[in-house]
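[Automated response] Your request has been received and processed.

Submitted sequence:
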Amino acid sequence: MATKADSTLNVAIIPARGGSKRIPRKNIRSFNGLPMISYPIRAALESGVFDKVVVSTDDQEIAAIASDFGAEVPFIRDPALADDHTGTGAVMQDAILQLQRSGWHIGVCACIYATTPLLNSERIKQVFQTFSQNTIDFVFTAAAFSFPIQRALLKLPNGGVEAFDKQSIGKRSQDLPPAFHDAGQLYMANAATWLDSSKGTFSAHSRMYVLPSHLVQDIDNEEDWHRAELLYRMLQESGEC
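Generated structure:
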């Protein structure tokens, strides 16, 4: 566990609202036998990186389950910050300010999404190491696109097709620069950076921690959920999760 003479805390914040629409109650739905939110809580606790693991939620049932698995829920999020339109940045800023008002002196602060069963403690430690060894605003998990995005196709209203990038469509894959996407798992910065709205997560002052594609799975619908459960079991057997 991180310790500092000035009592500055490293904190993980897991946003988990109760009103998921596409997969109802997905943050606490059983995933391979345990509530989904238990996986990032366990990974964060086992990493040894954080002094505190906090869940920000508007939902009392989520709060109770999070507490059962070792997270702290020192406040209940305002429902106005738990709708379909509130971004992660606003939720993180609210959580940090709430904790600061309670007397917490926060240094490094990570946002870990609630639906990240493929994230483990070792990768959290590696992200923290990347952040600690570089003068950067953010470090976040990312993955490479499996196909060159420059050769994407657009479907026209009449059913026809056109190239997204006409200059690149005829080029060989190896002649095009690789492109990456946010893996939707972990974002790390200092608390002051989260509170500074002028600093974006994706900028020249950020770094990616690139994951192999088999460790990345969005969970937005039932097909995603089923695939993630199968992938988790395979990774468990191989020792990668």
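Summary generated for your ticket: The two ends are 21 Å apart (CA to CA). Residues 96 and 191 are 7 Å apart (CA to CA).
If you did not submit this request, please reply to this message.
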